[in-house]
């Protein structure tokens, strides 16, 4: 059974960027529903007990859309929680250097990230990824994630589904993204993911099935196999 990972911070820890009400509802209701449905569907598909990353990829390969949507959303949300930290984490060090190389400046990256998120039609996710072409910003629709995109490794992601921001920002997705980048995004976690993409340390991995909720901090993410 896949467990709903514990949040690595308290419900009110991301205020004012994200309210305790939004975070509690998002994690305890939306994320839990995806995990519970994944458990049900993975069992029927004969994939119970497999790493969630493998379930996502296998569901995509087989065209099992319902399983893919739920398993990918369970994974995306677990990754999203790790991409945030109370007060955010300043963009420094090697990630800052890589962002400046790719975008010209941190501010230009934030503009590109916000533009991609605002311009994304409907629900989905906006990502900072790395690959053979270096760092770039992409968006994905609905449950789609980087696990099924060859050659891309995720560094950061922000949720574009309305339940992620509507209680706090109404329809102001741009305001949410700007606040998120300045006040909640953990660039430290993004840098750790960048190191993992280069084979230096471990990247994010969803908690193994059968385990308890994972309260691991962003300073010690698990391993994420490459696509």
Overview of the molecule:
The chain has helices at residues 20-44, 52-62, 65-82, 93-103, 106-119, 166-169, 173-183, 187-197; strands at residues 124-131, 134-141, 153-159. It has 227 residues and is mostly helical. It has 2 domains: 20-82, Fe,Mn superoxide dismutase (SOD) domain (Helix Hairpins); 93-197, 3-Layer(bab) Sandwich (minor pseudopilin epsh fold). Helix 4 (93-103) crosses helix 5 and helix 4 (93-103) crosses helix 8. Strands 2-1-3 form a 3-stranded antiparallel β-sheet, with helices on both faces. Strand 1 (124-131) and strand 2 form a beta hairpin.
Overall structural domain count: 2
Number of helices: 8
- Indicate the CATH class of the largest domain: Alpha Beta
Number of strands: 3
What is the arithmetic mean of pLDDT? 92
Helical content band: 40-55%
State the fourth-level CATH superfamily of the largest domain.
Iron/manganese superoxide dismutase, C-terminal domain
Tell me the strand percentage band.
5-15%
Largest sheet: 3 strands, antiparallel
Rg, alpha carbons: 16 Å
Give the helices and strands as they follow along the chain. HHHHHEEEHHH
User: What is the CATH architecture annotation of the largest domain?
Assistant: 3-Layer(bab) Sandwich
Low-confidence parts: 212-227
Principal-axis shape equals globular
Our measurement of the CA-to-CA distance between the termini, rounded to an integer number of angstroms, reads: 23 Å
The CATH topology assignment of the largest domain is: minor pseudopilin epsh fold
């Amino acid at each position: 059974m896949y467990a709903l990972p514990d949040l690595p911070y308290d419900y009110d820890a991301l205020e004012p960027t994200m309210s305790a009400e939004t975070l509690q509802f998002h994690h305890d209701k939306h994320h839990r529903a995806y995990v519970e449905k994944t458990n049900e569907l993975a069992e029927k598909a004969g994939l119970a007990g497999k790493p969630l990353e493998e379930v996502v990829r296998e569901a995509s390969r087989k065209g099992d859309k319902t399983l893919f949507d739920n398993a990918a959303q369970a994974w995306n949300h677990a990754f999203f929680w790790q991409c945030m930290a109370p007060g955010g984490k300043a963009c420094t060090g090697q990630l800052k250097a890589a962002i400046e190389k790719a975008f010209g400046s941190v501010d230009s990256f934030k503009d590109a990230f916000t533009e991609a998120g605002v311009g994304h039609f409907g629900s989905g996710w906006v990502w900072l990824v790395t690959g053979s072409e270096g760092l770039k910003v992409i968006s994905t629709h609905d449950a789609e994630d980087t696990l099924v995109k060859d050659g891309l490794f995720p560094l950061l992601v922000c949720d574009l589904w309305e339940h992620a921001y509507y209680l706090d920002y109404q329809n102001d997705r741009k305001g949410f993204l700007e606040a998120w980048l300045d006040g909640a995004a953990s660039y430290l976690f993004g840098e750790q993911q960048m190191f993992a993409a280069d084979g230096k340390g471990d990247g994010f991995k969803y908690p193994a099935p059968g385990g308890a909720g994972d309260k691991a901090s962003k300073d010690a993410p698990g391993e994420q196999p490459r696509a």
